[in-house]
Amino acid sequence: MSKLIVNNLSCQKGYNLVFENLSFEVNSGEVLKVSGANGSGKTSLLRIIAGLSSFESGEIDYDSFNLKSEQYKLDLLYLGHLASLSPELSCLENLKYSSLLGKNSLKNDYSKALKQVGLEKYENDLVGTLSAGQKKRIALSLLFITQSKVWLLDEPFSALDSKAITIIESKIEEHCINGGLCILTTHQECNIKNLKEIRL
Amino acid sequence: MSIFLNTISRDLKMAIRNPSSFLNPLMFFVISISLFPIAISPEAETLSRMAPGIIWVITMLSVLLSLNTLFHYDFDNGVLEQMIISHHSLSLILLAKTTAHWMLSGLPIIILSPFLGMALFLNSQSIIILILTLIIATPCLSLIGSIGASLVVGIKNSGMLLSLLILPLYIPILIFATSAISNAQSNLAIDGQLYFLGFFLVASLIITPFLSALSLKISLE
Question: Which of A170, A191, B105, B121 is 20 to 30 A (C-alpha) from B37?
């Protein structure tokens, strides 16, 4: 059973203290929703847990591995504000490269993943020609092929319609049932089981 | 190795679909060199004496022009973040990106250089040495440039800063490469210059991917 523990974490940007002494833990099977006003440090928190940003003080442990360990990186899936897609590549090409960077298998399931998010017709279309919502869907289609246990999702529901939100919520629930854990930030209401919430 | 080859193939594919990113510096290379005979003198003796310097300075500047695009697009769309948190070695991924950059900037220059060398009245022996110096040293330009590009990746309009950071590091390459071609024109030994360029290539290959990875992590924090 995996566990992510954040202990007395403090983050400072320039002279501004974004948050301090933040502690929580997320066990496998749980979803943690991080909420708060704009600028309260939700994205900063996810970037710190992803190992992209440094922090002032505190500790973060994942099954006694630190953030720079190979095992943690293998178990991590981070989807940030930016969709991490190249406009010159097709949906399929983008998905293949993204999955290569992370811990993914099921090599022939790219088309299936795109079908899950309703983009099977756009497989070979260049991402630059798609709308913001469609780009978000492609980024989220990675959830259907990843084997990573720790999902960090920054505003996963932004730019999505209600149908797509339901699909993603179901996928997050399925991930937790299979022993994964998820931390997400959102301003929207979530209909996800085993949801814990912290407010920054 | 799969991530290395896939990254090269991805970057080449992206460049082919957005050709201005690599064609503009190449056009600059060809046009600048072709203007020298008009601006200075069409005399064969004058031009052939100046040719090593002209070709190498313009090569450096055109590679410098193309460096802005090395990490810029991937930074803007968030792919660089995914590369940093990937379990694959960031140094290896950046080495792949730099290899693709060389294939799009240095390699076309090597292919075009014999024709431009002939236009500047270089003799056949000197053209062979010119090609040799370009083969050894243009990868160094991309490798060293990748450090600068990773340091300024988050800064808008960073062209001038990048030049200030990188050009001083290019100077030894410029000195030894032009000296090798000039010596070849005078039938003097060129071994020393080529050995130095070779050493520079090996040292860049070993050191720069780690430095680029380190500076990229700092830039994206």
Answer: B105
Contacts of B87 in chain A (CB under 8 A): 70, 73-74, 102-103
The closest alpha carbon to A198, from A1, A25, A11, belongs to: A25
Chain A with chain B: Cβ pairs closer than 8 A: 70
What is the C-alpha radius of gyration for chain A, rounded to an integer number of angstroms? Answer: 17
Write out chain B's pLDDT in tens, 221 residues. Answer: 689 999 999 999 999 999 988 899 999 999 999 999 999 888 999 999 999 999 999 999 999 999 988 998 999 999 999 999 998 999 999 999 999 999 999 999 999 999 999 999 999 999 999 999 999 999 999 999 999 999 999 888 888 899 999 999 999 999 999 999 999 998 899 999 999 999 999 999 999 999 999 999 998 88
**In a 3-state reduction of DSSP, which class is residue B28?**
helix
Instruction: Report the residue of chain A nearest B6, measured CA to CA.
Output: A97
**Mutation site, A56, A79, A97, A125, interface B, largest B CB count within 10 A:** A97
CB-based contacts of B39, cutoff 8 Å, min separation 6: none
B86: nearest CB among A54, A88, A101: A101
ipTM for this model? 0.90
Find all residues with CB under 8 Å of B13, minimum gap 6, and list them.
Answer: A88, A89, A93
CB contacts of B74 in chain A (<8 Å) are 86
CA-wise closest residue to A70 among B88, B93, B220, B1: B88
Q: Do A86 and B81 touch (CB under 8 A)?
A: no
The answer to whether the CB of A89 falls within 8 A of the CB of B14 is yes
Regarding the domain with residue range A3-199, which homologous superfamily does it belong to in the CATH classification? P-loop containing nucleotide triphosphate hydrolases (3.40.50.300)
